[in-house]
Design brief:
4 copies of one chain form a homotetramer. The first copy, chain A, is 80% helix and 0% strand. In chain A, helix 1 packs across helix 7 and helix 7 packs across helix 9. The first copy, chain A, starts with 6 loop residues before the first helix and ends with a helix. The mean pLDDT of chain A is 91. Chain A binds a DNA duplex (21 and 21 nucleotides) through helix 3.
Chain lengths: 191, 191, 191, 191
DNA sequence: AATGAATGAGTTTTCATTCAT
DNA sequence: GATGAATGAAAACTCATTCAT
């Protein structure tokens, strides 16, 4: 009785495998079979736990967004100074965890998924809004509200652009360089 | 004989239809049939003119990159002042032509295609390099080489990020606002 | 030990659930899972009790045939008059129990199952023969053997036809009207 | 130019193959592959011409209903006498064409399909109504309207019941016997 | 030059069934 | 006794691609 359910483990394994598979395949045209095989299961099991393929992909997306959210929250904990909070957000957003090639591939894939899947679009918008408001709030401690919002918008777009270029590999700024670019952008804008 | 071949027209029509179809479908999972039907031809004709599907997609990509290149070149023609050249590049890169929803969808799709198709990757890298060197060269007229390069990298990433966010629609900066954001970024970095 | 086994209850519950599920689904393409869930058990239990899916379906069929047989026998008990016995058979065959939508759906489904499953075919033939001989025997008390047999054959087919039409719902004769039609048929044939 | 299209041929071939396949398989759980193979084509072609599997099945149904309708109309042509018209309808409905085993299997299958597919249900209802009104109209020439309607309803159900029993094969009345049973029914009811 | 016809290969999805616990 | 876990097998359906005409 109370046999410990393996569902959470399986879901985690499958999500991890999906990220790898998306990276290996280079997009969302991974097959459920590829994902499952990579996780060591049969394709049928993926459907058993996630329903349709898109549900699995959405679960992956939620995982990534959750990871980023948790990392950001952890970095912000206890930090009061506005400028330091900005740096913490950048450190989380552009940190090595986000810059892992597989993670970047997955992000890019989800940008495309968002084009046709409303739920994916909603999730991505939540991410945008959260990043923006996090940045704007922190910046508002060291600059007027309006400027803070504008700088935040620029910084957010810059971060996404750096993801994109890094996702293409080869000669794109790495995690550290990326953070420095955004820091420089913000420093310059703050005057 | 010497009947003017209709091939170029057909190719252009198919490429235009492909862009629209990618936008309508929200990604590269358009079918050759959808593209051909939209252009008013049979799917077989697409193969006749382009070979495989990926070849058609690469042709679309080349078209888009060529358009952007020509527009940039036109904007730069006769402009000598460094700062003005920067503005001209931005105007071309972020102008209304590039911000048309269908164009953005296609760009995004090609970012994903580049993940798995070496030729697509190469084309995209060429674009990066060209944008970067255009910007860096122009900036080098008003700032030291090293700074120019760094600012150019940031501006390039910023442009791509703005594409991305606009592609997701909804509350993202429009063409004009986007240009202003990048101008502000550069102005701030130039001090 | 000697714990009263719950097996008979479980089997009955599963059979009832199967009838409902067949009705809800509109045919034999119910899944074992649907049936089991409806009964409140796991799909595995259905196999535990019945073996393969077809065995479960055959059990359902036997149940229905048994119900009808018992009802007919009860109606005939103590009735001696030939004409009255005919009416008793009709009352049982066309009574409300048989005209319940779910029952009709199940019957229809079994007609189809009989097309490919020999055991189902055998069961259905037993039903035919029993209905026919019941009717013919009763009619033989008020008409010559040969005529009795012919009238019985017609009445039997008529009953099945009424099932069929009622199964399709909508403007088909109800239980009472159905009985009256068959009574009229027999009355007319008897002169 | 004006290359003669083979579509009608293919559709006919596929429909014929479907009827055979339904008979061979004993129900609607034929696969598209079985049908196509029997017709000598690939499964993909069936989808090409019919869309989904259910559309193919509906086409089969329409074919059968159309055949019956045409045969009935042909039998009625030029016949004025009410009683003779009734016989013509019966001859068409219970004639050898309808009593071919494969045809019967298909009919039965469609009864089940009608349980879950609204279009199939509608088609079957059309058949009912047409048979009923044909019979009732003919009978109305030799009996009062009300009686005609009632007798027609009985005869219609009887026909369907005979289909059903014949579909199960073995010891069921054949085409000729079936017609005689219905004729006897009607003769008796007409007094 | 252009296309209807045709298909092979592949993908998602479903499900009966098995089995260890 | 009962079930969650797992899967093999199969089905519908899609699509890029080929080819004869």
């Amino acid at each position: 009785m109370a046999r410990p359910t393996v569902e959470p483990q399986r879901r985690r394994a499958m999500i991890g495998a999906a990220i790898e598979a998306i990276h290996a395949q280079g997009g969302l045209d991974v097959t459920v079979g590829q994902i499952a095989r990579r996780a060591g299961f049969s394709p049928a099991l993926a459907h058993h736990y996630f329903g349709a393929k898109d549900d699995l992909l959405l679960a992956v997306m939620r995982q990534l967004l959750g990871d980023l959210g948790r990392e950001t929250a952890a970095g912000l904990r206890g930090v009061r100074d506005g400028r330091a909070r900005v740096s913490a957000i950048l450190a989380a957003s552009l940190g090595p965890a986000q810059f892992r090639p597989a993670t970047l591939s997955a992000w890019l894939a989800f940008y495309e998924m968002a084009q046709r899947n409303p739920q994916a679009r909603r999730l991505l918008r939540v991410y945008f809004r959260r990043l923006n408001s996090n940045l704007a709030d922190a910046l508002a401690r060291v600059a007027p509200r309006a400027a803070a919002r504008e700088i935040a918008a620029g910084a957010g777009a810059l971060i996404d652009g750096l993801y994109l270029r890094h996702g293409l590999g080869h000669a794109a700024p790495d995690s550290g360089a990326a953070a420095r670019i955004v820091e420089a952008h913000i420093a310059a804008r703050l005057g």
